[in-house]
Specification:
single chain; 334 residues; Rossmann fold; Nucleoside Triphosphate Pyrophosphohydrolase; seven-stranded mixed beta sheet; six-stranded mixed beta sheet; 29% helix; 30% strand
Length: 334
């Protein structure tokens, strides 16, 4: 039995912004954090968990509300999903914490196994935090085996701890900006980290139509309309990938606008495999004068370029609602 988990960190608080250590201290989201939670909900609206588990701290509970606008799922609140207890470091600025622990600061920032027993005076160790959270999650699914897709609204330190040591994790640990998401699976008593497919696409609008191409799934033979785009290569900027892929898949040179970007995260089944995609969509415009679609040499599933009416988004893109809604937002933006 495989259990799928989607972990996400809470939105920004004033203490995040000021570099003050929070831990168990209950600090609310600021205005930026509330906006981040709203954006998170739009990004992951297609995931549809069976349940949402949330830390009892208000910054995590309010962030979970972003997804709950789109999900019909029960919510379970637990103090076992709280941030690491930082003891005497809580309420101190980062520079004050460095003075508090002196040379032991390197143990806090280190991802190494030998430093998992580090904790601030009066607080938990890294290892204790990891054990607390994973014990709770494994106990939860044992009691509720019907919940196979589980969203977890929690904290940066918790995410660092539960991903520690898993295959595919960067050697310095996973980045933990506010409202970041990560996928983990639990099966046969072990946890695994799910790599996402980082992609980039363009939303090219001309004469009230959107640039797309027709495609046929090689396995189930379903027909789709896709926005041009593809995998972001290592070291490649996302908007550069989007323009490169658009030329390859449609024959059109376009200008992507990096400042007009939306990110969406979603499951998508293609050629018999289910992928977790994280796609940046850029509003774009034709670089050259318009010409009618021409044949392009691309993958065998590519069935031809087509401009589809802005009024037909529901018809062509509703197979992934978050993508359809994102297109609509970009089309309507200035």
């Amino acid at each position: 039995m495989t259990y799928e988990f989607l972990f996400f960190r809470h939105g920004e608080t004033d203490w995040n912004h000021q570099q003050i250590f929070q831990g168990h201290t209950d600090i609310p989201l600021n205005q930026k954090g509330l906006a981040q939670a709203e954006d998170l909900g739009q990004r992951i609206q297609d995931w549809h968990p069976d349940v949402v588990l949330s830390s009892d701290l208000i910054r995590a509970r309010k962030t979970a509300d972003g997804g709950l606008k789109y999900w019909q799922a029960p919510v379970v609140i637990s103090d076992q999903l709280r941030e690491m207890n930082l003891g005497k470091a809580e309420g101190l600025h980062r520079n004050e914490v460095i003075k508090l622990v002196g040379p032991d600061w390197v143990k806090w920032v280190s991802p190494g196994e030998n430093d998992e027993n580090f904790g601030f005076p009066g607080g938990e160790t890294k290892a204790e935090t990891r054990l607390r959270v994973l014990t709770y999650l494994e106990s939860y699914i044992k009691k509720n085996p019907q919940h196979k897709r589980i969203a977890v609204s929690t904290h940066g330190g918790v995410i660092r701890r539960v991903t520690h040591g898993l295959k595919g994790i960067p050697k310095d640990g996973v980045p933990i900006p506010n409202c970041v998401t990560y996928r983990l699976n639990f099966e046969a008593g072990s946890w695994s980290f799910i790599q996402d497919r980082r992609r980039a696409s363009t939303v090219v609008v001309y004469n009230n139509k959107i640039l797309a191409f027709k495609a046929k799934d090689p396995t189930n033979h379903k027909h789709y309309h896709f926005l041009p785009g593809g995998k972001v290569e290592e070291g490649e900027e996302s908007h550069v990938c989007a323009t490169r892929e658009t030329l390859e898949e449609t024959g059109y040179q376009v200008l992507a606008q990096p400042e007009q970007k939306l990110t969406r995260e979603y499951d998508f089944e293609w050629d018999g495999q289910l992928y977790w995609s994280r796609t940046d969509f850029f509003k774009s415009q034709l670089k050259d004068e318009y010409f009618d679609p021409r044949p392009v040499k691309d993958a065998s599933y590519h069935l031809g370029v087509e401009w589809v009416s802005v009024g037909d988004l529901e018809k062509y893109f509703s197979y992934t609602m978050s993508v359809k809604n994102g297109i609509q937002i970009l089309v309507q933006s200035d």
